[in-house]
Design a protein that fits this description.
This is Glycoside hydrolase family 65. It comes from Mucilaginibacter terrae. InterPro entries: 6-hairpin_glycosidase_sf, 6hp_glycosidase-like_sf. Helix 17 (619-629) packs antiparallel against helix 18 (633-640). Helices cover 31% and strands 20% of the residues. It is of the alpha+beta class. The strands form 9 sheets. It has a 9-stranded antiparallel β-sheet, with helices on one face. The protein has a 4-stranded antiparallel β-sheet with strand order 9-14-19-18, with no helix packed on it. The longest helix is centred in the middle third of the chain and has 20 residues, at 462-481.
Length: 709
Amino acid sequence: MKNLKIILFTLGCVAASTGYAQRINREQLVKRHNVVVKAIDSLSSLSVGNGKFAYTVDATGMQTFPQKYEKGVPLGTQSEWGWHSFKDTMNLKPEESLRDYMLNGRKVSYMVQLKTPERGKLASDWFRQNVHRLQLGNLGLLLTKKDGSEAKPSDIKNITQTLNLWTGEITSSFTFDGVPVKVITVSHQQQDLLAFNIQSDLMKQGRLKVRLRFPFPTNEWADVATNYKNASKHTSSLVKNGAQMAVIKHQLDTNAYYAELAWTGAAIVTNTAAHDFVLSAKGGSSLQFSCLFSKTQQATLAAFTAVDANSIQNWKAFWMSGGAIDFSGSTDKRAKELERRVILSQYLTKIQCAGSQPPQETGLTYNSWYGKPHLEMHWWHGIHFALWGREQLLEKGMKWYDHVYDNAVKIAQRQGYEGARWQKMTDPDGNESPSSVGALLIWQQPHFIYFAELAYRAHPNAKTLAAYKKNVMATADFMASFPYYEKDKNRYILGKGVIPAQERYNAEDTFNPTYELQYWYWALQTAQQWRKRLGMQPNKKYAEVMQKLSALPQADGVYLATESAPDSYTNLKYKTDHPSVMGALGMVPYNKRLDMGVMNKTFDLVWNTWDWQDTWGWDFPMVAMTAGRLGKPDKAVDALFMNIHTNVYLINGHNYQDDRLRLYLPGNGGLLAAVAMMCAGWDGSKGMNPGFPKDGKWRVKWEGLKRMP
């Protein structure tokens, strides 16, 4: 009997730590963080979406006042397929934006932002700006006063708007001219399809209608969907207009797409001005309609009730899958806020980052860097899906690397390397975008091996190995050919010709950044493990580079940012931006090349002297990861709550950075990865919740999470 009690107690502990039992009421957990908005606030907009399409609304539940929100979290409508390029009238060539660098005794070409000659500058600008992601349309309410004038944001009163995270529904209630209005907004979870249920007596009076406008692309770094200039440079036309449906075609140069509307009851669509269409209900006080954005016309559209049911069903399935963390019962005053950030970050990354392409840093809300993804950020956008037991969402994006493989091989060949050099700032087809920083980054290179390893840990079988074998080996082939062998020192160095993750260093002078060295070694080591799993012999070149790869640079008992910067901690410029030296342990698993005592001292130095005001949203999760692995759980939590403007999480869950980046999804993804690691641990960690303090203030329950490598 005594032994039985011991066995039952042990099994109970195992269940508590791994989530074999459903201990957490997930619906209750999620719903207690439903977002409630009470005012027109440009930083409080809410979104619906499905990972490859998103639609962001103001306090009316639609995109009624886009100009009011253009400097906040904008009212965007974007899809994976929605890209555009202006006509090239000068027959520019990508190679015209190449610059040769003399590195380690030979010329290596990089696609950068040239200033001279003039044609080189034109080519650099052109290929940086084109293609760019489109804002597909503004779909909002057209509210008019009794005197016929349009409503202003200040005319909207008595606002109560709720995002039901469990169902994906936004319910918006307000009054206009004293008359109540209610709007329910939902998004289909497999199609680029929106649906709305609008209730108001204003429709009987002809003072509430639905308005669809098509903005023009800005061709600028940002596009917030409010450029109504250049009306003559694009066309919008009603190609079908029936009793209960209408199809509108929007043509930009050689790009065209459709917005289709379908409704129940009596209504009509009219083209009121260039690129401006109005849906008007004929009598009655309710209107249910759907709107599909697509590259080709569709035969039929699901009605509101079907789209709503689809949203409810699929969101419940999402929340019931994978991991969950419950901080209720904790007495640390930060616990409730951490739980809110975790829940909202899951919602936001699901609708913004779970498509079949790597997302841009501002997701499917508005353009930053012309809407193009940055592959070094894919780690922050994606690995949390695997750590939260939703690895299929990471793997959706991994398939894109097959599509861009040939371009990655061409980059490597052009530069004299083997394998595939993965792009940094790119487009849906894997074309390079000229960048004087991005082209010289290397820390995106090992990411694919990291992703593949997470996929294998989730499904350790031959199918997984076959799916990713080609890209794992091509990644490693480049990594083995990239380091330069210094004969006099009998070692391989990374560089010269690199810009580290901490983008403060001159590429031509920089070599051996600490984080990249450690990540390089881990990735080559993991590639060798993949070869063994595949029944292949170890690669001799990988082994040689690993054996002779430069030691991690250090001075005065701490790790330097790079070997080429002995003034890493005395030059004020070098104490800004990402403290990526932390990533050598936080993001990369421990191996024997790293001295934990030296990393401890490095952590303390960075913690106490870094210019934290000049950092980014993912820096704080990275520091938390490092703190956890160093056995500093108090610092791990403190890092997540540093009182820094780039560590702010808005009411809608977005990670605010500054006036330029009002949302920053790598911060949300990083938070989810760090918290999963702090709960489930990492390879070699011991005990429950190793990343949380054992001071009695944290009561952490979780299930369905995976260990970090």
